[in-house]
Amino acid sequence: MAKMLTPIIRYNLKDRMRRFNGTPRNFDIPRIVANINSQAMQERVKLGDLHGYYGHWPRTKFGPEPKEGGVVDGKIVNLEPCFRTVYLKAYEDGTIEHQAEFFDNDPGRKAYAQSQENSGGFSSVILGRNQSFHGFDYVLFPNYSGNRPYSMMLDDAEDVEPVVLVLDEVETKDGISPELLPDYVDFLLDSIEQLKKDRENLLIENKQIAVTLEEAMRANDLLTDDVLTLQADLKKEQETPKFDYIALDDAITRANRFKSAKIETVETEEPKPIDKAMAQFNRTWGI
Question: What residues pair up with 147 in beta bridges, in sequence order?
Fold first, then answer.
């Protein structure tokens, strides 16, 4: 199958090519140009890593650089990129050139078919705070009308939907375009459900924090009681004398008196010699 390539697309950040609709932009053009022409960005283009999606939903849900998927309402969502940017260059006057290769998957074939029917166009993804560039997505109503793979006269462009990212997709002046309304309603419902879940999680966390705080205060009270008891015991021990100084002095006096006392000797009778006793015994018994 032949590659599904767009021609090189050129548009200018200073010219949205719209007179009545859409949202004017006041980009920091030198910063965006430097970002696009940086070695890091050009390496992504060269290696085929600068992906785009069908619509901005993946980025509004998962950030400016979505991975392979994520979890929504407890379910795993796999993301398929729609195309990759194979050529990208920016000029000092704000002109941007790029070329896309659509993937041979459902979102890629869908976007490519729309481009062949002169429907839709590319929408740049620029992080509003520092205006860092993150590539393009394929949308139905590009804010920059010149950012299309085909020529188109000025007609009914729409107002941009404000989101965290500067996403150059537009709405109708009376609200969301009919084609985008179902997806937009789903997005709002998902957001409401997520807010409810976040609120429930916060309530649970607050209860857990309250329980933990109560346990900590109870433990602190017990510790305080232990400290007070120890302090009282220590004070009592300090106030109680280790020795009875009066009894000790008396014992020392008695010991000294015993050492200096005169001990009288007891005289004992000298034992009689054994020979005299034996002689008397023999005489008595006639031996």
Answer: none
Instruction: Quote the CA–CA distance of 158 and 162 in Å, as a whole number.
Output: 13
Count each helix (H run) and each strand (E run) in the chain, helices first: 7, 12
Q: What is the CA radius of gyration of the chain?
A: 49
127 DSSP β-pair partners: 132, 165
pLDDT of residue 172: 42
50 contacts 103 by C-beta, under 8 angstroms: no
DSSP 60-94: HHH-SS--SEEEETTEEEE----EEEEEEEE-TTS
SS3 label, residue 7:
coil
Q: How many Å separate Cα 145 from the centre of its chain?
A: 39
Measured in degrees and rounded to the nearest 5, phi and psi for residue 95 equal -75, 135
- Evaluate whether 149 touches 115 at the Cβ level (below 8 Å): yes
Alpha-carbon gap, residue 192 to 75, rounded angstroms: 17
- The pair of three-digit structure tokens given for residue 76, joined into one six-digit string: 């795993």
Rounded CA-CA distance 161/169 in Å is 7
User: CA 172 to CA 155: how far, in whole Å?
Assistant: 12
Structure tokens at 137: 């997505």
What is the C-alpha separation between 86 and 42, in angstroms, rounded? 10
**Among 47, 23, 4, CA closest to 126:** 23
CA distance 34 to 43: 14
Q: Poorest-confidence range of 21-30, 112-121, 182-191?
A: 182-191
